[in-house]
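hey so i finaly got around to running the thing on G protein-coupled receptor kinase from Notothenia coriiceps. pasting the sequence first so u can double check i didnt mess up the copy paste, my clipboard has been acting weird all day
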Amino acid sequence: MEIENIVANTVLLKAREGGGGKRNGRSKKWKEMLKLPHISQCEELRRTIERDYTSLCEKQPIGWLLFRQYCDTRPELKRCIEFMDAVAMYQLAPDEKRRDCGLNLLDTYFNNGSAAHLPDVPQEVVAGCRERLEQSPCKELFNDCTKVVRDYLSGAPFSSYHESMYFSRFLQWKWLERQPVTKNTFRHYRVLGKGGFGEVCACQVRATGKMYACKKLEKKRVKKRKGEAMALNEKRILEKVNSSFVVSLAYAYETKDALCLVLTIMNGGDLKFHIYNMGNSGFDEQRAIFYAAEICCGLEDLHRERIVYRHFKNS
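ok and heres what it spat out for the 3d tokens, dont ask me to read them lol
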């Protein structure tokens, strides 16, 4: 049994390191697996897909990337995207540097003599930002400005994006994304943990070599414990949430015996392992504060989607 564990651990470590080859864990047929369809195959998708800016350009990474690429072809739109990036950097700036960062942002995008000037934002909105910056450079300082820019981008620019080759490429990716997912999409490795409805194992996407955690809910156990609604609810919640502090649902599929949720893999052990098995028991205050802050950020993102997490344990 010990030898089997050693072998399983070795295979998993090799997979995490990319398999030691040039393909970084990808299948020999990875190019064929990721081959985009001819655009003519996407016409039905073009007619039926929801034309919603929030859904296509804010919640979907590939959609946001392709919309950005489209905006890069038009200087007036590129300035808007650069402004949104600058606001994101301002929000991440340390408290002691946020004021200077905010002043630089105002001078760059709201100074009439600047090459990157954004004329569509009303002067009274800009003046309000300057006044609040002097009082308290909070993270929400540029919310009114970003709303104006976002409303502009989601209007005529978003409509013209639909007629561009970038939107056609987005449709090709969506077509590929909608292809059936089965257990053969992945390589499966050792069990990482067990729970009330099944187990979690490591897995690797054959087409990309990316590692995930596969949560397998055994159908018999789910049915016996009347957990069908709970399993479906978990899937729907994970689909809805997009947060750096909550694991993401990458794929979902079923086998004859199990419902499978393929999630972000969190390497490095769980909290209990770090508390009791890494050096002296417990954490120093700063480390405990850091972990508590991460948990609060995750809960805040859930609450923003009107989701209450009721299975929180301190063990």
